[in-house]
Amino acid sequence: MSDAVPEPVVPSAAEDGEARPGPPEAEAGAPEDPGYEPAAPTPLDVPRTPTGDAGVDAGLARLADADHLATDGHVEVYEDVHRGLRDALTALDARPGPPAPPSPSSPYDHRS
């Protein structure tokens, strides 16, 4: 037993004497099917709140570039922003912080 659905039999013009129009693709001058056309990129309009850090804010602004690219172009933008954010975090680790407070002296530090 087959799961295929049989094609309906349509009598030709010669069999019943009536002219039947063919499929629209067969008509003279009918435009060819252009195939699947993806939709144009549409901005997401996600609000970006400034952070006060110039490097991070530049990365967030760079995300807006992805709004105007096709999906396959997003990877480059995301990798660039990720690299910038990673560099900003690394820079935070490299900065010297405030000096550590002096440790309180212990009564056991002065032994004779």
Strand content: under 5%
Number of strands: 0
CA radius of gyration is: 35 Å
Mean pLDDT: 75
Order of helices and strands: HHH
Distance between the termini: 102 Å
Question: Outline, from the CA principal axes?
Answer: elongated
Low-confidence stretches: none
Region (Disordered): 1-58, 89-112
Biased composition (Pro residues): 96-105
Biased composition (Low complexity): 25-39
Defining traits:
3 helices; 0% strand; 112 residues; mainly alpha
Would you give an account of this structure?
The structure is a single chain. The model has no long low-confidence stretch (mean pLDDT 75). The longest helix is centred in the C-terminal third of the chain and has 24 residues. The chain is built from 3 helices and no strands. The chain is elongated. Helix 2 runs antiparallel to helix 3. Helices cover 34% and strands 0% of the residues. The chain is mostly helical and 112 residues long.
Q: Short summary of the structure?
A:
The chain is 34% helix and 0% strand. It is an all-alpha fold.
Topology of helices and strands:
Elements: H1 13-16, H2 54-63, H3 71-94
Helix pairs in contact: 2-3
